[in-house]
Design brief:
Layout lengths: L2 E7 L3 H12 L1 H8 L2 E8 L16 E3 L2 H6 L4 E4 L7 H10 L4 E3 L2 H17 L4 E2 L10 H8 L4 E8 L2 H13 L3 H10 L8 H4 L2 H15 L9 E2 L7 H9 L2 E13 L5 E13 L11 E9 L2 E8 L3 H16 L16 E2 L9 E8 L4 H10 L5 E9 L9 E8 L4 H8 L5 E7 L9
Parallel strand pairs: 1-2, 1-4, 2-3, 4-5, 5-6, 8-10, 10-13
Antiparallel strand pairs: 7-9, 7-11, 9-10, 11-12, 14-16, 14-17, 15-16
Helix pairs in contact: 1-12, 4-5, 5-10, 7-8, 13-14
Length: 436
Amino acid sequence: MDSIRVALLGHGTVGSSLHQLLVEHREHVRAATQRDVEVTAVLVRDVDRARPGLDPTTTLVTDSLEELLASKPDVVCEAMGGIEPTREYLLALLDRGIPVVTANKQLVARHGTELFARAAAARTQLRFEASVCGAVPIVRMLRESLAATRIECLLGILNGTTNYMLSAMAANGTSYADALATAQDLGYAEPDPTEDVEGIDAAAKLSILAGIAFGTTVDVDDVRTTGISGVTADDVAHAHVLGARIKLVARAERLLAPGGGHTIALDVTPMLVPERHPLAAISGATNAVLVDGAPFGQLVVQGAGAGGPETASALAGDLVSVLGSEPSFLTSDPHVAHLAVAPRDARSERHYVRMRVADRPGVLAAVAGALAAHGVSIERVIQQRAEGADGTGASEASLVLTTHPCAPGDLETALATVESADRTVLPMLDAPEAAS
């Protein structure tokens, strides 16, 4: 039986979990591939750091790519993260014809085209299932199971940290600050949570999935991104009254262009999701993706989207795929066409608006008039008296309204003429027909 020499880039949470999985599940890998897998080299930033489960007498531990290459790996699994020097490492490996399996979402999102080109030139493989949604096999589903279909829309809860926080705020009335602190205590959020709470992580994942789903190159900077830091406990409570849940939704949708053809709309933003929508029930740190297209209709997949063992399982799955396939099988650049990015106002949809206004006669009429002047009509209104924001007891009201479908720019222009404070504006996701 052939033995496959595997090298790891990184031996942190994910890398060490992958190492442990390959050792403990050696028989499963052998049964699937008819080959033995041996981890022969590990590249780390600090060779002096103690690493439980890693025996330097049998496995090369190095901080030098040249030393790792000298160990003659058959496959390299990358779990070190970051853009540089990881990008240079992967390019060097691919140029030498060494297959690479990666969990690096930012690298694939920002440099995927370059990496695919180098892999193709060397007739080797680049696989990246683990870069999105951890153990959920969404990349494989899009590239293989749905390869012969036409996808119209992809919606996802792609960040477990923010979904955990919003779930806690909905279940317990927890404030944003307390939900974040708990997420950090549990290890869901990093000490610097910016990449998660501001939607940056989800935007990178969306750019990868949208590129595959629509066969187009997606620049992560074209994803309109709004995080959850502006969402308050009041917003979560109002959403419940409106029969919805607030979720950070990553969305890619094919739209008709005015002059013919299609564009792609891309955004990551907190949205009010109706309770009957499949994504509304996704709680905790779970990830989920809904794919809508022809002829299959709607498919929803969900599962653990982060964590060492979960991401390691996706890396191991790609490793098995490398061992069991020809270099050209579903490893070419999936970006075969180009769809222009839709302008911001290409999609008309309902919106949730919450703001503090003076509690006096005529204010609601003035707000309604300002919206109507810009073609925005109100669907529903909830008004609550609130204590003055300045602590003086001045009479204020919390005004919550939902609109009929309108362009975001029209709503923004209308609200600019309204005197208010502490304003939140969120799009509202309609439940799919199949869920009604």
